[in-house]
Structures are given as structure tokens and as C-alpha cells.
Amino acid sequence: MALGNLAQRFLVAVIAVPILLLLLHYHRPEPTWALIFAASLLAMREFFAMTLPAADRGAALVMGGIASAAMYWTSPVALAIYHEQKWIDLGTLAGTPVVMILAVVVPGLYYLFRFRDIPSVAARITATVTGIVYAGFLTTFLALLKASDTDFGGDRVLAVLVIAWVADTGGYFAGRFLGKTKLYEAVSPKKTWAGAWGGLAGSLVGIAILKLVSWSEISWLDVVLLAIPGGILGQMGDLTESLIKRATGVKDSGALLPGHGGILDRIDAVLFIAPYVYAYLMIRAHV
């Protein structure tokens, strides 16, 4: 990575991080959801640009946006904030079927009546549903983390970002200075084993600092159980997006963020970490 690219990354971080921290620690969850929803739309747009013909992208994005919004707003976690038991019960009973209908049945019906080129329909349906789940639903877990706790919701979201982004920094410097043995050259030629270990160390240090600074609800065992599996999943998420880009002949998913590529390039690790952190914290709270 050239120095100019590092400088661009630093500039984006200087502008974005204070805004992000302000939103994450605002006492209401709606601004966080709005930001994450916008990010999910951009991520889906980039995914569909790689995997769908232009004629299908707009419809796929609309279906993905509606399904992702429904995933959040039918969740008992989000509805509980408004203290209306009847809506919480309705979300518990009907939320999952509604979301599955919007994510799978509706795209199926769309292509049934607008199939155009029949030989490519299976691939287009698959890409549409995959994009909704991958770039839409997985992103929405960040908003659910914010809504899941009135006191520490912002730190829960921040933990996912720390695991992903501090690992990225640790992995870069470890890979550059400590070793050149390739991790998975067929998918990502620049990734090294030294970078992978440096990334895990970065995740662990990042979550430890977050605990000491603001996230007092977690134990030191939680630090390890969040950072290490989360860090591994984040690296797998990074490699998965690299595989998708390599399969579709794309270098970057987009060019929205200088020095970072597209939104999907920036959150590919987050997509795999967020549902794990959400599941871990939900299970931990009930055992």
C-alpha cells in the first residue's frame, strides 16, 4: 500500500470516526439504524453491480432495502425500545416469516414475471437473494446491536468495528514487516500468515482497550471470546469478498471512500463479525 493510500485512509478516518462515535453513543438507536441502513443500501448496490445485469439492479436494490428495513423493524430487540408489548409479540411471531417472504419469495415472484433471459434466471435469482442476505441482513446486525442495550449498545457496535478495523491495521503492519508466507494466494495474493496473526493480535488489543475505556459490562473472558473468533471470522469475511471480486473480475467493489475502495470493501470483515457478536451477547445474556 503506497504512502498516498495510507494518507487517504487517515483523512477518511479523521472525518468519519468522530461522526460515527457521536451517532453510536447517541441515546436513541434510530440515527444509528439510519446510517447502517444507508450503508447496507450502498453495499447491496455494489454487490449487485458485480453480480447482476444493469436491468435487474434497481429492482434488486429496492427489494433488498425493504427486506433489510423489515428485518430491523420487525425485530423484538428494536421494537422493545418503544415498550409496546403487542408489537413486540407481533415481531416475535411474524417477523421472521415476513423477512423471509421479502428476501426470498418476492425476488422469486419478480423474476417469475420479469424473467427476460430464461437461461440466466437461476443465477440472477441466486445473486439477488445472496446480495440481500450478505450485504443487507448481515449489515443490519450492527443496528440490532445498538438497539439491544440502552447503556452499552454503542460499544457493542464499536466492538465489531474495532475487531475488524484494528485487525486490518495490525495485519497490514505485521504482514509488511514480519513475514511473507502467503495465507491464501489463490484468493488474495497479498495476504500473509504473519498478517493473519497480527490481525488477531490487533483484535484482542482493540477489544481490551475498549473494555478498559468504556465497555465495562464485559469480562476478560468475553474479551478473548469476542476478539479471537471475531477476528478469525473477519479475516474469512475479507477473503470471501476477495473471492467474489476475483470471480467477477473486479478490483474494488466501488470507489466511494478514497483509499478504501467501496463500502463493501470496508465492511467485508464486519459482515461476518457482526452476527457472531450479536449471537454471543444474546446467548451470554440468557445463560
Describe this structure in words.
With 287 residues, this protein is mainly α. It folds into two domains: 1-27 and 152-287, no CATH class; 28-149, no CATH class. The protein contains ten helices and two strands, in the order H-H-H-H-H-H-H-E-E-H-H-H. It has helices at residues 3-24, 30-51, 54-73, 76-79, 85-113, 121-147, 153-177, 193-213, 220-248, 263-285; strands at residues 182-184, 188-192. A two-stranded antiparallel sheet has the order 1-2. Strand 1 and strand 2 form a beta hairpin. Helix 6 packs across helix 7 (153-177), helix 6 (121-147) crosses helix 10 and helix 7 packs antiparallel against helix 8 (193-213). The longest helix is centred in the middle third of the chain and has 29 residues, at 85-113. It is globular, with a radius of gyration of 19 Å. It starts with a helix and ends with a helix.
Short structural summary:
This protein is mainly α and 287 residues long. The chain contains 10 helices and 2 strands, in the order H-H-H-H-H-H-H-E-E-H-H-H.
List strands and helices in order, with pairings.
Blueprint: H1 3-24, H2 30-51, H3 54-73, H4 76-79, H5 85-113, H6 121-147, H7 153-177, E1 182-184, E2 188-192, H8 193-213, H9 220-248, H10 263-285
Antiparallel strand pairs: 1-2
Keywords:
2 domains; mainly alpha; two-stranded antiparallel sheet; globular; 287 residues
Q: What is the CA-CA span between the terminal residues?
A: 45 Å
SSE class = mainly alpha
Mean pLDDT: 91
Counting H and I runs of at least 4 residues, what is the number of helices? Answer: 10
Question: What general outline do the C-alpha atoms trace?
Answer: globular
Number of extended strands? 2
Oligomer: single chain
Radius of gyration: 19 Å
